[in-house]
Amino acid sequence: PAGAIAPVYEYDHRGGRCSITGGYVYRGAAIPKLTGTYLFGDECDGNIHGLRRDTTGAVTVEDLNLHVNGLSTFGEDGSGELYAASVTDGTLWKIGAVGAPVTTTTPATTAPPPPRTPTTVTAVALSADPATAADQLALAELTIRDPAASAAQLDAAARLQQRAYRFLGQHPELYDMVIAHAPPSVQTAVAHNLYARNDLALIPGAPLRDTLPAWRIVAPAPQQELLADYHDAEAQFGVGWNYLAAINLIESAVGRIQGLSSAGAQGPMQFMPATWDNYGAGGDINSPRDSIMAAARYLAANGFADGNVDGALYTYNNSQHYVDAIKDVAAVLAADPIAFRAYYRWDVFYVTTLGEVHLPIGYETPDRIPVADYLATHPQDPQ
To answer: What is the pLDDT of residues 214-238, one digit of tens each?
Structure first.
């Protein structure tokens, strides 16, 4: 429109960036090379960037190699020095050569445990004590990110991790304690996973039933195939691979669930048949690759690649809680792609009037069956 001023720089959501956090132009004296540089960042990846515009109008943007987990806001003091705050643990960081924390505006309600030497997660049950369970979760998160972890160790860590989030995520009053028990390197991931668990629980749904669904639970497609499909879809349609992985996880446990949802959606990315007709491009609704491509096609058509991430996700499921949960999981993957190998191992749980029921690979029934009958012959494993 007449009189409008075009932006000098466009910031997209590729690579896991999801929520831009605007800052200030640096006018302090401690870092002369930053003078006149506008600092901004992203809550999801925590990276801080500097934007400069020269006298010709040319704009350059560089990664300043500064990182704040859960970046939420910037501040400026009377001398023009800048600060960045973390929503994860309330720490305020001064922008400088060292980048050391200068104060804590929101102290943790529970002090973190003393430093300890990490050990390997073994196949143990999750403790019923929240503080002990938080320690187990912290160790699981470290194991998941250990490049030397064996397949058996990853299986045990992912099992413990999922059950910890299902248990601790039901208690928002414990979140500060759980986050404080985690090492700094994984605190943001722990926070995002807790928030995602809480948001998913808040999505309105049908009343709980005393029967189990007419589903078939199968092994997912190979991990590397799924990752290749997510990345191919991102390259073709501009939809972040991590968002597609998050949807795949939340909708069908990365393809483990075969069967109709309560709304009649189908396939690994849970499409309604009419929507599939428009975006499936003639593919198979039950094919992992075809459904991932269709989801990217659908999200791109609804503005994701143009920056309307929230709006596009909302069209996928008309719940802000769903949108927030997807963004939280996507943020974990953006910051640490290796986290996918734990999500890939997560099991299927179905919530009933008799509580959560684990549906393992091999579960299959053509009709709904009473929960009590199933539990009588399939005792649930301990946490």
So the answer is: 999 999 999 999 999 999 999 999 9
